[in-house]
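Entry — protein

Goal — fold tokens:
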Amino acid sequence: MKKQFHVPAAHHEWNYLTGVGPSAPVPSNEPLEPKCNFKPGWKVKRMHATIQPENQRLEHTAHVEKRREANEEVRRAQLTEKATYNGFNPIRCEEFDPSKNRDRPQGRKSLPERPAPPPEVVAKMEAQRFHKAEARKHLLATEGLTPQQKGPSVRDNFSGIQ
């Protein structure tokens, strides 16, 4: 039996090439703007002098150099104070008077309202301080700034063999 009434489906009327149907754009009265995916002049080859890619690095280097020059005297004073604080040069094993290099008043730092210790306590503290300084000088002169290995070595195992 043949169908007498043929009703075409709605999707048969859609023309996807002309934009009729669900894929059709929404009609508007605004003019279309051209798409610009690239910046203007993207096809032109620019010279290195025009781009100057190293400017940011050079500006940072100049800023660091200016800051270093501004703080150079303060840093030198701090390093000198640290190097001359204890009165002993471990590299040359020389002693010198550290009081010539310090700007602060000499003596023990104490609060003004604190009473001074008795003379025998002061003498004991000075003796301890002297012995500790002498022991440190001896240690630095004999072993250097880094401690030496004190355990047995491979050479000790074969020292008796001749």
Q: What stands out?
A: The longest helix spans residues 119-143. The mean pLDDT is 77.
